[in-house]
Design brief:
Length: 372
């Protein structure tokens, strides 16, 4: 198949990891894969390692009404006889729909990564969409409830990861790498990974750490990995103030963006997701792939990933005290950490592998082409 993936993402997060893994995996399976991106995106360097320059198109992709980009995209689709136009970001859906609609033989597929509602305008824009991929059942349910597209066009395909990247026997995994700068008393490490934002709930994580510290767990250190993409870095500043308020600066490290997350996750004893809204939660899957037990707030994404009391523990959203209690239970029981960690990796192997995701996506493409 000749497939074009489209993304105007300017930063790199879970959705972008999905984009790169899917694109490169499809190319490795023999498909003729192309990508349309904005200039200077981190996606470009990730794809350019394996895709020829002739298959990478850069466009401004400023917004849904970018006529220049719509025309450039359409011309590229026609020149390369693209069969599937696959858009991954909501603001790109109209441009992808325009290009597919004006190209004979091109079918439109979109992926919906978040549970936030689309507008009524999208109902018109997506009238010709062949298939919609939802990354979780809750995302599919939201799409169905809003009647943006016909329910028979929606397919649920959970994000998948390359388990080889999280193989603890690989030589590049050094559990001491993130422990060298820890306080001398720290023998255990708890961390969270995700863009610094109100939605990801890092303030709740810090409040939970304060509860843990007050109970005398001096042998534990904490990491927060993730970049703050807000204009004035408000979230990071808020976290720094909260850490100072609780006198936790020596216990909690703000790492910023981490280029390779696998070694960090492998160094943890407990992974925490304190999100307030999460459609999926790739970092949870990656932590489980490293055999690290997970404590998560019971978002839609966490409930679809974590098997309660088997591969992790779920607490109410925003309940920092419950978050702290669940973490402490793991910290005080090494056997429990090992058991939950092993169950988590097995769950990822069964349900969240990259191969499973790619095969399911190929099937959606075949359906889309048949429906055209």
């Amino acid at each position: 198949m000749r497939i074009l993936h489209l993304s105007s993402a300017r930063a790199f997060g879970g959705g972008e990891r999905h984009f790169v893994d899917l694109t490169l995996s499809l190319a490795a399976r023999g498909h003729e894969v192309y990508a349309a991106l904005v200039p200077s995106t981190p996606l470009f360097e990730n794809l350019a390692r394996l895709l020829p320059a002739s298959r990478l198109l850069t466009l401004p992709l400023r917004n849904a009404l970018d006529v220049q980009s719509a025309r450039g995209l359409t011309e590229f689709v026609k020149q390369n006889r693209i069969e599937i136009v696959h858009a991954h970001v909501a603001r790109d859906y109209p441009l992808a729909a325009y290009a597919a609609r004006r190209t004979h033989g091109a079918s439109l597929v979109i992926t919906r990564h978040v549970p936030f509602p689309l507008s009524k305008l999208h109902r018109l824009i997506l009238s010709d969409v062949a298939r919609v991929i939802a990354v979780s059942e809750p995302v599919a349910a939201q799409l169905d409830a809003r009647r943006i597209v016909s329910p028979d066009k929606i397919r649920v395909i959970p994000n998948g990861i390359d388990l080889a990247r999280f193989d603890l026997s690989a030589t590049n995994f050094n559990r001491d790498h993130y422990r060298r700068e820890l306080p001398a008393t720290a023998t255990l490490l708890v961390g969270t990974v995700g863009e610094l934002s109100e939605v990801k709930g890092q303030t709740d994580f810090v409040t939970a750490v304060a509860h843990i510290a007050r109970q005398g767990h001096d042998d534990v250190a904490f990491l927060i990995a993730g970049e703050d993409h807000s204009p004035r870095r408000e979230t990071r500043a808020r976290l720094e103030r909260l850490l100072a308020e609780h006198q936790l600066q020596a216990r909690v490290s703000l790492l910023g963006e981490v280029s390779e997350v696998a070694p960090l996750l492998a160094s943890l004893d407990v992974f925490v997701s304190s999100s307030r809204v999460e459609a999926f939660g790739l970092a949870m899957v990656e932590a489980m792939a490293c055999s690290v037990p997970v404590v998560a707030t019971a978002t839609d994404g966490a409930r679809s990933i974590v098997e309660e009391k088997v591969s992790g523990k779920l607490v109410h959203i925003g309940d920092a005290r419950a978050l702290a209690s669940a973490v402490i239970e793991f910290l005080e029981n090494a056997e429990s950490r090992a058991r939950f960690g092993a169950a988590g990796r097995e769950r990822v192997r069964r349900f969240f592998s990259l191969e499973r995701m790619v095969r399911a996506t190929e099937e959606v493409y075949r359906e889309a082409m048949f429906a055209a």
